[in-house]
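The methods section describes the discrete structure representation at length, but only in general terms. Each protein is reduced to its one-letter sequence and a matching series of backbone shape codes. I believe one specimen quoted in the main text would settle the matter. An entry of this sort, consisting of the sequence and the corresponding backbone structure tokens, reads as follows.
***
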Amino acid sequence: MSANGISTLATKELKQIAKLDLAATKRAADGNARFIYDITQLPNPYNGNLVAPDENPNTGGLVQGRPWVELAAGLYRRTYTGYHGEDVNWFATATQTAATADSTLAIAATPENTSVQWLGYFVPATTETYTFFTNSDDGSYLWIGLTAVSGFTIGNAIVDNGGSHAAQERSGTIALTAGVRYAIRIQTGNGGGPGSHATSFSTPTITKTSVFTGRIFYNPITNGL
């Protein structure tokens, strides 16, 4: 294992995670991007260099397929009371009112003082530059990749359609590789009056579309990423 540097990692926990990352990369290369690992599903995950049985819920031993989780179709949408106010971290402490899986990333009429966040993964069909669009009333943001998981800010959003405004469309581009699973996060909201949201994408070879069938997924264990 020295060729990939795993044996040089400081703890058994880091080595365990690195092996799972390596397996995940191979699965994606083999066309199995819909499978993601959840380390809590291991019968004996490490914490540092030790296994803590009292922290391990998997007392029944190894279950076939563990720790691999098959992603479910769609993105997971959570709805909140209030308007996010252009604060991308607002959702972490906001009051959630509803949750569901969505195959269509659009809301025809967003209620007043309501915000929505979608979480999951986007798996592109082609290797090329993708343009993502949000058309919203009021502010909306979209992230793809590592910044969709953590460290997301208005500054690193692929689409920044923020502010209090009537329905308007903004877009951003990113190079993606076919079959690779990319985290995606979309935030939108309506502060007052009529509200709406729609997400779409295009590429040099794909006409602009709001149909995400077969391209978006979420982790059914975490209901999101």
